Amino acid sequence: MSDHDTQGADGSDALKALALGCLDDMQAEETIAIDLAGKTSLADTMIIASGRSQRHVGAIADKILQDLKAKGYGTARVEGMPACDWVLIDAGDLLVHIFRPEVRGFYNLEKIWGEDRPSAHLGG
Predict the structure, then answer these.
(1) How far is 13 from 94, CA to CA, in rounded Å?
(2) Residue 115: predicted pLDDT
């Protein structure tokens, strides 16, 4: 059973901080966070980041999944791990997309979800 869906804003902020910390630790590139509150019921925040290779994408995803579980958020749903071109982690109030750069450019989720938020860039 997972209780992270009902934690409210504080839980969402903690979840976002945990994921951003993992991405930073794992040297993910071009990390952005997009506020989805009021845009969709899918999640409150979407984070998009790039890994340098399939192996790097997989390692970043593994780190996030391990830390979520260790911090009591349960087991997040994950898609794309075998290929590691695009891994999606669904942690309830938080969606994390980790791409290889070529794949990220093709799907261009930033434009779909965050084109009105140029200040969403966190570095990279």
Answers:
(1) 9
(2) 54
